[in-house]
TrEMBL record:
MF term (GO), any: DNA binding
Provenance organism: Zymobacter palmae
Sequence ranges assigned to domain Core-binding (CB) in this UniProt record: 66-145
Top-level taxonomy: Bacteria, Pseudomonadati, Pseudomonadota, Gammaproteobacteria, Oceanospirillales
SUPFAM superfamilies recorded: DNA breaking-rejoining enzymes (SSF56349)
Keywords (A to Z) from UniProt: DNA integration, DNA recombination, DNA-binding
Family according to the record: Belongs to the 'phage' integrase family.
Keyword DNA-binding: yes
Ranges of residues in domain Tyr recombinase: 166-345
Protein name: Integrase
Domain of life the protein comes from: Bacteria
Pfam families for the chain: Phage_integrase
Length: 348
């Protein structure tokens, strides 16, 4: 059976900026899909490739091959504009180091299992981080299979990821001082040391700080207001600022004024662009400070641990961190043995 297409080759659909193709497959099924490009020559080339793949499928029984990049590109196009787009894009870029160039519908489970093990070993990912990365891998494949009718299966299906655990790694005051001192001596010291100090004194999440804008800060009230679409909880919350946090923010504001930057991003580089990737510098600072098994997110754990150790009630710690429930905050309860001692003291 001949593979045929619509007269005039690729065509435009109302409301879409892209060229579309309309092909008749080997079993008579009609295949209509976007080429994902507004360039007609590129669309014609894509249509030619699709026809060739369908011909191979008809003649040799060979299914079309889809690379990791092709699958992820389609998924990213579908998720563009969503609240989680930046996180998805970052995760996919990390996955590309381990799956780049791989043909999704022919890769073996052993390869996927090995890639997951390497990801954990080389990047020090927790079970939760691995699960998040692989969830986007699975979601992209599911999207292409369901929405684009691609004949691909998920090679990660049935592979067990490490079990999630409650990891609480925190610094002593001496370790924190050592880390800040090392950060102050590094090339990106203006950004890194301020980032560390603000995290330790507010408990804010990494992305909450990296996306923090000056309009969210009230110096008089000593409050940062994080809107619902600016934090993981999905609800507006306020973060109180102590003296150390105020000092760091004033330092960042002076940096912006000195370099003639628009007062938009708190963590802006010298060119005014937002600082987006602190992890490489942070890992180097930890290594130079002799601090092992410590991630950026553990700065938040450290903030919580310090508060609990100094007698701050878990309910108050919950409000500072923006947890949904006190159950999430109870992972730090073991750091407050004085509470149990106070409880039993009333019995004697």
């Amino acid at each position: 059976m001949r593979i045929t297409g619509r007269a005039g080759m690729p065509y435009k659909r109302k409301g879409s900026p892209y060229w579309w193709v309309n092909l008749k497959g080997p079993n008579g099924q009609r295949i209509r899909q976007s080429t994902g490009t507004a360039n007609k020559q590129e669309a014609e080339a894509i249509e030619g490739r699709l026809k060739a793949e369908l011909w191979q499928q008809q003649t040799w029984g060979k299914a079309p091959e889809y690379t990791f990049e092709e699958v992820m590109t389609e998924y990213l196009k579908a998720k563009k504009g969503s609240k989680s787009f930046h996180n998805i894009q970052t995760s996919i870029e990390i996955l590309r180091h381990y799956f780049g160039g791989v043909i999704i519908n022919t890769v073996k489970k052993e390869y996927v299992r090995s890639a997951i093990q390497r990801m954990q070993r080389e990047r020090g990912y927790t079970a939760a981080s691995l699960s998040t990365r692989m969830s986007y891998f699975k979601a992209a494949i599911a999207y292409c299979r369901k929405e684009l009718d691609w004949n691909i299966s998920d090679p990660s299906e049935g592979i067990s990821l490490p079990k999630r655990g409650q990891r609480v790694r925190w610094l002593t005051r001496e370790e924190a001082d050592r880390l800040i001192s090392v950060a102050n001596g590094m090339k990106c010291h203006d950004l890194l040391s301020s980032f560390i100090v603000l995290a330790l004194n507010t408990g804010m999440r990494k992305n909450e700080m990296l996306k923090l804008q000056w309009r969210s800060i009230n110096f008089e009230e000593r409050i940062v207001t994080l809107l619902a679409d600016e934090n993981k909880s999905g609800r507006t919350r306020s973060v109180p600022l102590n003296d150390a946090a105020i000092q760091v923010l004033e330092k960042r504001r002076a940096f912006a004024v000195e370099h003639g930057l628009k007062l938009r991003w708190v963590f802006a580089k010298e060119d005014g662009e937002r600082w987006a990737y602190p992890d490489p510098s942070f890992r180097k600072a930890c290594r130079l400070a002799g601090i092992e098994d410590f991630r950026v997110h553990d700065l938040r754990h450290t903030c919580a641990s310090w508060m609990v150790s100094h007698g701050v009630p878990l309910a108050d710690v919950k409000e500072v961190l923006g947890h949904f429930s006190v159950t999430m905050t109870e992972r730090y309860a073991h750091l407050a043995p004085h509470r149990a001692m106070q409880a039993v003291s009333v019995l004697s």
